[in-house]
């Protein structure tokens, strides 16, 4: 209501008053509308009415002033409130608005462009004014204006005294509140979906809140724990000092972080990484403790596994070199304190390399695992069985009472590893060589003990493998010698230090030399003539036998061809083959290629293999030999009787000849036992339709005995020592005559 209206209202009021006055005076000459100022003066000549009129006007003036100031005050208040206010009448025209409403709805409009105009038409914002709320039943709703959130309230003012019905629209901004609600919802989600367990206590450390991860990790639900203390989860794995230091840190720095083991509701232990933070209010009073827990079970398992792998061999799961040295060092310390002895068994598998090279690493790996299991099963719990690498194992035996205890144990292992191992379709024979050293007799520190056991092991290898040997100081010399030979051997081929000798194979019945065995000779400038018995095993161990063996083939085949060309007729040349050669990649193909290169036929070449080499992997051996025999090659078993082939195997092997080992010939005919063996071998060979050659014939009596039992083919010093090619030729000519 503005001033003019008030004024008009007051005039009406005054006229009513005058009407009243006139009525009182008993005159009613005029109707109120005829009453003007002039008439009033006439009617009220003495100014009674005028006086009261001016009083009334005065009053009216004051009222108007109060009204205006109240209005100003209200506008100021309206402008100051943090909400937009718009008053519209029942026609939707703006009656009143405040500052915020202006910026929201009537941007850049002047007051006269707003007041009295239809709000919907002049509103400058897209969303309009009050439309949504007026449609809603609640008279309050949320709306978005210019990307800001508002709560709109509509209040209808009923019409009074002819004034139209009005509506007051109040827009309160709730953007911040909405954002706060949104983040709260987000925190709630995070709280419940985080992988970390969260536990919240009040200032007295009583549990007030947990999340679902916490329940998953500990098994306890919030209902189980509410009002309880976190000590409910104690595992008993930490002493009171641990908890005391953790509370101390919490009080001093407001936080504690570390690993802790708690107990799951089901009783199991849970390793956790825990961070506890103290929350205080503005007065510094502790209001809460928040604990965040990460389950580190799998991390711990990985750590344990890694730790295991660092100290164990991944293939066999036995302790590795690192752990073994550690155990040995500790064992030595204990033994020194208690005046005890320690035994060290150094085990090297005998024919492992051949198997690994010929059958592949998968078979090799499985074999190593089986061997590891076998050795472990024979050992006591207190022994340490370790794999040092490759095919080397070592056993540490504490509290050894006598040397015999170690040798008996070694013997047990040798025997066990002699038994065949079944892997896939293969039956594998390996065997092992064991060197033994004893603390303190053979060394006072771990390095010396291992070195000396290794030396003793090589002694076994040198003397034919498959056995054990206790270290003695003399052995060190032979270890040095072995190393010297190996080093010298490395250059022997390129420096042409090898040559071949040939030993005639004699047929007594037909009185002729039917063949020659090629025997390798090494004239080393440093070591002189080295026996093949000495250097061949070393060449095998170091794989040098492959190039050396190839040279032997090439040279002996060449020599045989040149003899034949010059009229020296020999049925074949017999060449020794070691296991490493036979099972080496492409052995048969290489040999066939050499034969073709020199224009020979297969039946002019015989290979000599020992029984044990054949037995290593009988199936592979048979397939290689079959391949060679299909090209006509001859196969002889060398040193027959010294290995461990059985009759059943012998029948399966594709062979032509048995060479009876010199050890059975040596004591003929005086040793009854040897006589029986020789007789049995000859008749066995006959029944298997195999030829026999007796090796190492040194005298007439041996010859006669063998002749009598039906063996007619010989080799030995009695006829000729192995000689160079020239001397062999001469012998051939002499004997043929
Ligand atoms: P082996 O194949 O059994 O050869 C026979 C060995 O007996 C030869 O020794 C020979 O000299 C010797 N011998 C022959 N007749 C008599 C005899 O009447 N009395 C005595 N006491 N000994 C006799 P060698 O030449 O010292 O060879 C020893 C072993 O070295 C051979 O035994 C063979 O296994 C191996 N070997 C020799 N040459 C080669 C070769 O080129 N390659 C391979 N892989 N091994 C070879
Ligand atoms: Mg031979
Ligand atoms: Mg032989």
TrEMBL record:
Highest rank taxon of the organism: Bacteria
Q: Care to name a GO molecular-function term for this sequence? A: catalytic activity
Q: Domain (PAS): give its ranges.
A: 183-228
Q: Which residues form the GGDEF domain?
A: 340-473
State the needed cofactors, names only.
Mg(2+)
Q: Could you tell me which SUPFAM superfamilies the record lists for this protein?
A: EAL domain-like, Nucleotide cyclase, PYP-like sensor domain (PAS domain)
**Species annotation:** Solemya pervernicosa gill symbiont
Spell out the protein name for this chain.
Answer: PAS domain S-box protein
A Gene Ontology biological process in which this protein takes part is: regulation of DNA-templated transcription
> Where in the sequence is the signal peptide annotated?
none
The protein's matches in InterPro entries, at most eight in alphabetical order, are given as:
Biofilm_reg_signaling (IPR052155), EAL_dom (IPR001633), EAL_sf (IPR035919), GGDEF_dom (IPR000160), Nucleotide_cyclase (IPR029787), PAC (IPR001610), PAS (IPR000014), PAS-assoc_C (IPR000700)
Q: What region holds the EAL domain?
A: 482-736
Q: PAC domain location, by residue?
A: 254-308
| PANTHER family in the cross-refs | BIOFILM ARCHITECTURE MAINTENANCE PROTEIN MBAA, DIGUANYLATE CYCLASE DGCP
